[in-house]
Amino acid sequence: EIVMTQSPATLSVSPGERATLACRASQGISSNLAWYQQKSGQAPRLLIYGASTRATGIPARFSGSGSGTEFTLTISSLQSEDFAVYYCQQYSDWPPAYTFGQGTKLEIK
Amino acid sequence: QVHLVQSGADVKKPGSSVKVPCKASGGTTNKYAINWVRQAPGQGLEWMGGIIPFFGVAHYAHKFQDRITITADESTRTTFMELSSLRSDDTAVYYCARDLGFEEFLGYFDYWGQGVLVTVSS
Questions:
Q1: In chain B, which residues have their Cβ closer than 8 Å to the Cβ of A1?
Q2: Is the confidence at residue B7, as pLDDT, over 90?
């Protein structure tokens, strides 16, 4: 099983500032990585797939980068609605054996 | 607009089974994979398995392989996830989620149901 490790567990950032979230895979997954945002009591929302492609309707302030084992989600200028938990997910294996990171909670500083 | 509708919360006894439905409506077809992801209280996300209803072929996470069955009823556009031999640590919100891929498992999910809480307690 590919293990996904996110850091930090909690990130405190002020509105308007940049947030950088990290995700590491236990083995190479090429660009087979997605990012999701989850707010309390809601289902996750797809932000990024293919490591760097924004999903439909996702604002340009969200960007993803990386390949292989190291990935980053950057939110360029934090808005109030961006404070949430973020998960990375790999989809590299076939047959499917998708795994998620444990999440990074982005909180208001 | 695509909607995945899940029914209300359920309480089960340890050792029993639960069958959770997920009904699709709107601009989607049965050629998109429907996946099941669960989230224990205060915990992260865990992929359980998925199915492309049109083909009827399901894939399961190794962890659940012995006690999960995912099926689909094309006539009602409903996908079902059945989990047996329930334990207290199966208490979680169970989500269905549509894969973005058409006729294939791409592995990332663009539409999600609202989730249903299944509580396992004696």
A1: 62
A2: no
